[in-house]
C-alpha cells in the first residue's frame, strides 16, 4: 500500500479526479448529439501532435492540443462537404491522424518508449506542468458549463428550437468543439489516446440507462467517472496493473451491472 | 394575392408574416418558387401540400432556419435579418425529431422554451418556474412533469411541445404537422384545443397539416391562395370577435378552465 502515499500516486489521483469531472461532462454533450466518435478521432490526431512535440522538442501535450483543435475545424469543414454522410469526415480525420502519427514515430525512433505512454496512458508520470494544465482546463470547462447549462441543454435536445430562440448556435458549437479538444488532449496522458474515448462515452452510456432528467444525467456521469477513476487507480496501484486499462474496464463493469439491474427491474 | 386591403382594417391587425417573391432551392433544385403571401394578426393559416411540395421548407425559412435563395421575408413588419424578437414566436416542429432515450423530463423540455438570447447569462428564476407550472397546467400535463419525455404517448408529447411553445406567451404559433402519428381521437382533441386558442386568445396561427378534413371544416372549403403545390387555407381575423389583449397567466388559466368545462378535450 506504500504506493498510495507516494507523491507520484497522489499527483495521478489529483489529475484523474479532475479529468473525471471534465471528460464525462463533455462526453455527455457529444453522445447526446450523436457525436460519440469525435472523442476517439481527436485523441488519435492528438497523438500525431504529441509525436511531433517529441520530435521538435516542444511540450508534447501542448502540440497535441493544437493538433486536436485543428482537427475539430477540419471535421467541421468536411462535414459541410459531405452533408448527408457527416460521419465520413470523422473517419477520414481519424485515419489521417494515425497515419501522421506513424510517420512521425518512424522519423524519431528514439522516443518510441515515451510515445507509448501517450497511447495507453502514463498517469504516474504526470508532472507539475501537466497538473497545472489539467487544472486550468477543468476550471474553464466547469465555468462554461455552469454559465451555459440551460443553453447547452436546449442545443443538445433540439438544435432547431435553440436556433429559433435566437441562441448563437455557431458560438455554442464552436465552444463545445474547443472544450472537447482541450479535455481530450490533457486526458491522453492519464488514460491514453486509445482509451480516452471510453472516459467520454461510457459514463454517458450509463446515464442513458438510469437518468430520467438532464440534471440527473449530469450528476450521474461525473459520479460514475469519479468512482471508476479513484477505485481504478487504487486497484491498479496495489496490484500493479495498467491504470488507464483498469479505469476503462471498471467503467465497462459498471455499465454491465447497470444494464443487468435495469433488465431485472423491467422484468420484475 | 392576399393583402390587408381586402378586409376591414382593425387597429390591432398588423401583418405578422410577409413573404415577397420568396424562392428556395436545394443545390440548384427548386423547391419553392416565387411565393408571395401575408399572414395578418390573429389569422389562422393552414398550409396543405403533397410530400415534397416544400411546406416544411417554407416554415423553416419563416423561423429563420433556412435562408431563402431569393425574395424577402418580414416578421412583425421587420426584415427577418434584423428580427430579434424570437420569443414572440412559438414553434412546434414535426414530432419524433428527438431520441426517445434522451434524458430530459417534461418539465425540463417545457422550461427550455424560455431559454433565449435575453436569458443567456441569467439563472432560471422563480417567475420562470411559475410560467412553466402554468404552461404544464394549461396543457393538463402537470402530472407528467417529472417523467422522461420519451416515456410519454404521442399525444402527450405533442402537448408538452405545445406547452413549450406557449410558455413565452407568443403572438405567433407555427406548427409543423402537429398530429402526425397520433390516433384520430387525440388528433380531434388537439384541433379543438388550438381552435379554442385561436378563437379566444390573441394568437396568430400558421400550421402545416395533411388533415384536409380539419383544415376545411375550420378554414373553409376553398384555399385562399395556391402557389405551386402549396395551398393556403385562411380564416381571417375579421371573422372573429374583436381583438383581445391577453397575458399568459390569464389565457392559460382560461384555457384550462374551458377544457375542464368540457368544451375542449384532449
TrEMBL record, chain A:
One GO term (biological process): transmembrane transport
Alphabetical UniProt keywords: Membrane, Transmembrane, Transmembrane helix, Transport
InterPro entries listed in its UniProt record: ABC_BtuC-like, ABC_TroCD
Topological category with respect to the lipid bilayer: Multi-pass membrane protein
SUPFAM superfamilies associated with the record: ABC transporter involved in vitamin B12 uptake, BtuC
UniProt keyword annotation of Glycosyltransferase present: no
Segments passing through the bilayer: 12-32, 44-73, 85-108, 128-149, 161-184, 190-211, 218-239, 245-261
Compartment(s) where it occurs, according to its Swiss-Prot or TrEMBL record: Cell membrane; Membrane
UniProt key word Membrane: yes
Signal peptide: none
GO cellular component: a single term: ATP-binding cassette (ABC) transporter complex
Record-linked PANTHER family: ABC-TRANSPORTER METAL-BINDING PROTEIN, METAL TRANSPORT SYSTEM MEMBRANE PROTEIN TM_0125-RELATED
Annotated family: Belongs to the ABC-3 integral membrane protein family.
Name of the protein: Metal ABC transporter permease
Organism: Paenibacillus montanisoli
From TrEMBL, chain B:
GO MF entries: ATP binding; ATP hydrolysis activity
Gene3D superfamilies: P-loop containing nucleotide triphosphate hydrolases
KW Nucleotide-binding (keyword) present: yes
Pfam families noted in UniProt: ABC_tran
UniProt signal peptide: none
Domain of life the protein comes from: Bacteria
InterPro entries for this protein: AAA+_ATPase, ABC_transporter-like_ATP-bd, ABC_transporter-like_CS, Metal_Ion_Import_ABC, P-loop_NTPase
Keywords: ATP-binding, Nucleotide-binding, Transport
Keyword Nucleus found: no
Family: Belongs to the ABC transporter superfamily.
Entry protein name: ABC transporter
Amino acid at each position: 500500500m506504500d504506493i498510495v502515499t507516494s507523491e507520484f500516486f497522489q499527483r495521478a489521483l489529483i489529475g484523474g479526479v479532475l479529468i473525471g469531472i471534465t471528460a464525462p461532462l463533455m462526453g455527455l454533450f457529444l453522445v447526446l448529439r450523436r457525436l460519440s466518435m469525435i472523442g476517439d478521432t481527436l485523441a488519435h490526431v492528438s497523438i500525431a501532435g504529441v509525436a511531433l512535440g517529441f520530435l521538435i522538442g516542444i511540450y508534447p501535450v501542448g502540440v497535441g492540443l493544437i493538433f486536436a483543435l485543428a482537427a475539430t475545424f477540419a471535421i467541421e469543414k468536411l462535414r459541410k462537404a459531405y452533408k448527408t454522410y457527416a460521419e465520413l469526415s470523422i473517419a477520414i480525420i481519424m485515419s489521417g491522424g494515425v497515419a501522421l502519427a506513424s510517420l512521425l514515430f518512424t522519423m524519431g525512433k528514439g522516443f518510441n518508449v515515451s510515445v507509448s505512454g501517450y497511447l495507453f496512458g502514463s498517469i504516474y508520470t504526470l508532472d507539475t506542468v501537466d497538473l497545472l494544465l489539467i487544472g486550468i482546463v477543468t476550471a474553464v470547462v466547469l465555468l462554461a458549463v455552469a454559465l451555459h447549462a440551460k443553453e447547452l441543454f436546449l442545443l443538445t435536445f433540439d438544435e432547431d428550437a435553440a436556433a429559433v430562440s435566437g441562441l448563437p448556435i455557431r458560438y455554442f458549437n464552436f465552444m463545445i468543439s474547443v472544450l472537447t479538444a482541450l479535455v481530450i488532449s490533457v486526458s491522453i496522458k492519464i488514460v491514453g489516446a486509445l482509451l480516452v474515448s471510453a472516459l467520454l462515452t461510457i459514463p454517458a452510456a450509463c446515464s442513458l440507462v438510469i437518468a430520467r432528467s438532464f440534471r440527473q444525467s449530469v450528476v450521474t456521469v461525473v459520479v460514475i467517472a469519479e468512482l471508476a477513476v479513484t477505485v481504478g487507480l487504487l486497484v491498479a496501484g496495489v496490484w500493479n496493473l495498467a491504470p488507464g486499462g483498469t479505469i476503462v474496464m471498471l467503467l465497462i463493469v459498471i455499465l454491465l451491472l447497470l444494464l443487468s439491474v435495469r433488465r431485472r427491474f423491467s422484468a420484475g | 394575392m392576399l393583402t390587408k386591403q381586402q378586409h376591414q382594417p382593425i387597429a390591432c391587425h398588423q401583418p405578422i408574416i410577409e413573404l415577397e417573391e420568396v424562392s428556395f432551392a436545394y443545390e440548384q433544385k427548386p423547391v419553392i418558387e416565387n411565393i408571395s403571401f401575408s399572414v395578418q394578426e390573429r389569422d389562422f393559416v393552414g398550409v396543405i401540400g403533397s410530400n415534397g411540395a416544400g411546406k416544411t421548407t417554407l416554415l423553416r425559412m419563416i423561423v429563420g432556419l433556412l435562408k431563402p435563395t431569393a425574395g424577402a421575408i418580414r416578421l412583425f413588419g421587420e426584415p427577418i435579418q434584423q428580427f430579434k424578437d424570437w420569443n414572440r414566436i412559438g414553434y412546434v416542429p414535426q414530432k419524433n425529431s428527438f431520441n426517445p432515450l434522451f434524458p430530459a423530463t417534461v418539465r425540463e423540455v417545457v422550461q427550455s422554451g424560455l431559454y433565449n438570447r435575453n436569458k443567456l447569462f441569467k439563472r432560471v428564476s422563480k417567475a420562470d418556474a411559475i410560467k412553466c407550472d402554468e404552461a404544464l397546467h394549461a396543457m393538463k400535463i402537470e402530472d407528467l412533469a417529472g417523467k422522461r419525455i420519451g416515456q410519454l404517448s404521442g399525444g402527450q408529447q405533442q402537448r408538452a411541445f405545445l406547452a413549450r411553445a406557449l410558455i413565452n406567451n407568443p403572438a405567433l404559433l407555427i406548427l409543423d404537422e402537429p398530429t402526425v402519428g397520433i390516433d384520430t381521437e387525440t388528433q380531434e382533441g388537439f384541433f379543438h384545443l388550438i381552435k379554442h386558442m385561436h378563437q379566444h386568445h390573441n394568437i396568430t396561427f400558421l400550421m402545416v397539416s395533411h388533415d384536409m378534413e380539419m383544415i376545411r371544416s375550420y378554414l373553409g372549403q376553398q384555399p385562399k391562395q395556391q402557389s405551386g403545390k402549396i395551398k393556403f387555407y385562411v380564416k381571417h381575423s375579421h371573422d372573429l370577435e374583436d381583438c383581445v389583449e391577453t397575458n399568459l397567466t390569464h389565457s392559460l388559466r382560461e384555457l384550462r378552465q374551458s377544457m375542464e368545462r368540457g368544451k375542449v378535450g384532449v
